């Protein structure tokens, strides 16, 4: 625990978003920063702790795509410091229907417009990239260069080490209880370990966002939801493979994604009824706080489809099971920027791993210079009308 009780900026949440912002602030020379978390550092139990780490940069939104591209720059930068934490093996999205194939042509246009190296592949070319895929059931795919898999927790640990060496302070087991403000200006935070004076507070609490909002006197329209993913036992077909070799891929006609992870196959599935969790019912202080009980029934559609698409691997058995929570908003976008009603109160929430370092960079730019080179209006924390913030609406 640091002995100082005054900092210019306090970041609440030591997951990938909070640490990315601290990292960017430190690189810009702003190191009078304290990052606190209610749990231990840096496997805090939030979404960062269990996220599979798939990185798809393409998006119909230029802003969201650029944030992902900024993130990839950081992933590569951090990977150069020591052992790789990012594996830029590229990505594929397959089409099994004419409608999806038409959609992939549109996505190729988006990708090229946003500066990504993307191309459409025919079934044979797709099979060359994914040799175990049954290409007779697909019409083609889109390949995006530079996408890949990131190891989120090691990435966060290394970014935090860089920020700490530059002067940023980190404090675990320190839970926010209230954001203090006077005349519309942040003045301090109250925590379970005492009061800390400050001029600005950045909330990066992810699935606990609505609770942090209440402590700051604002309503945060964010809903934690969970979805399952699994990893297989060791597969003979992947014998001898280290880390990530094949492109990660997704199958949007079936709401799922797959990846090779060493000698294992990973499968994530969204084809199930939404699993909503009230923020106040999420435990804290545990490395698995963001994980719900696993229900194999919700995973079965994805497993069946994986066996159909990968006949040579169809006998895989399941080893690891995760039913992890992520943050969602009414319009599916992040909640970023300074709150209009309280000067010095900032938000960077409902941000996924793919966009976290990019979002950290954009928030750091806003906090230090007042502007960002990207147009962040679609992510603006102030975009919601009062009814959007009601729990029943969210």
Mind explaining what this structure looks like?
By secondary structure, this protein is of the alpha+beta class. Helix content is 26%, strand content 26%. The protein is built from eight helices and 21 strands. The strands form four sheets. Strands 5, 6, 7, 14, 15, 16, 17, 18 and 19 form a nine-stranded mixed β-sheet that branches. Strands 9-2-1-13-21-20 form a six-stranded mixed β-sheet, with helices on both faces. A three-stranded antiparallel β-sheet has the order 3-8-4. α1 packs parallel to α5, α1 crosses α8 and α2 packs across α8. It is globular. The model has no long low-confidence stretch (mean pLDDT 95).
Give the gist of this structure.
This protein is of the alpha+beta class and 394 residues long.
Keywords:
26% strand, six-stranded mixed β-sheet, nine-stranded mixed β-sheet, 8 helices, single chain, alpha+beta, 394 residues
Strand-residue proportion = 25-35%
Major beta sheet, specifics? 9 strands, mixed
Helix fraction, binned, reads 25-40%
Structural class: alpha+beta
Number of strands: 21
Taking the alpha carbons of the first and last residues, their distance comes to 37 Å
Number of helices: 8
For the CA atoms, what is the radius of gyration?
Answer: 21 Å
Mean pLDDT: 95
Shape: globular
The helix-strand sequence is EHEEHEEHEHEEHEEEEEHEEEEEHEEEH
Low-pLDDT residue spans? none
């Amino acid at each position: 625990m640091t002995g100082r009780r005054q900092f210019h900026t306090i970041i609440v949440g030591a997951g990938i978003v909070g640490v990315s912002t601290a990292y960017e602030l430190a690189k810009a020379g702003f190191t009078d920063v304290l990052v606190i978390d209610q749990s231990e550092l840096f496997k805090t139990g939030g979404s960062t702790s269990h996220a599979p780490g798939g990185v798809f940069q393409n998006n119909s939104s230029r802003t969201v795509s650029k944030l992902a591209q900024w993130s990839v720059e950081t992933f590569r930068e951090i990977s150069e410091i020591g052992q790789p934490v990012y594996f830029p093996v590229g990505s594929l999205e397959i089409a099994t229907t004419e409608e999806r194939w038409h959609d992939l042509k549109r996505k190729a246009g988006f990708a090229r417009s946003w500066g990504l190296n993307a191309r459409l592949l025919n079934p044979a070319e797709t099979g060359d990239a994914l040799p175990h895929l049954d290409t007779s059931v697909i019409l083609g795919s889109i390949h995006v260069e530079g996408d890949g898999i990131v190891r989120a927790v090691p990435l966060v640990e290394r970014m935090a080490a860089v920020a700490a060496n530059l002067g940023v302070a980190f404090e675990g087991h320190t839970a926010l209880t209230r954001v203090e403000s006077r005349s519309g200006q942040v003045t301090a935070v109250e925590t379970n370990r005492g009061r800390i004076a400050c001029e600005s507070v950045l909330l990066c609490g992810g699935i606990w966002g609505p609770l942090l909002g209440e402590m700051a006197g604002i309503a945060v329209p964010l809903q934690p939801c969970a979805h399952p993913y699994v990893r297989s036992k060791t597969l003979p077909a992947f014998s001898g493979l280290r880390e990530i070799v094949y492109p990660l891929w997704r199958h949007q006609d079936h709401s799922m994604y797959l990846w090779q992870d060493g000698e294992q196959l990973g499968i994530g599935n969204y084809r199930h009824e939404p699993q909503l969790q009230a923020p106040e019912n999420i435990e804290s202080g545990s490395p698995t706080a963001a994980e719900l009980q696993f229900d194999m029934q919700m995973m079965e559609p994805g497993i069946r489809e994986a066996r159909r698409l990968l006949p040579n691997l169809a006998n895989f058995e399941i080893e690891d099971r995760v039913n992890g929570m992520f943050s969602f908003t009414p319009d599916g976008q992040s909640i970023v920027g300074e709150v209009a009603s309280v000067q010095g109160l900032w938000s960077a929430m409902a941000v996924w791993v793919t966009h976290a370092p990019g979002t950290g960079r954009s928030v750091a730019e806003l906090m230090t210079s007042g502007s960002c080179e990207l147009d962040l209006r679609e992510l603006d924390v102030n975009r919601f009308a009062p009814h959007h913030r009601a729990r029943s609406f969210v």
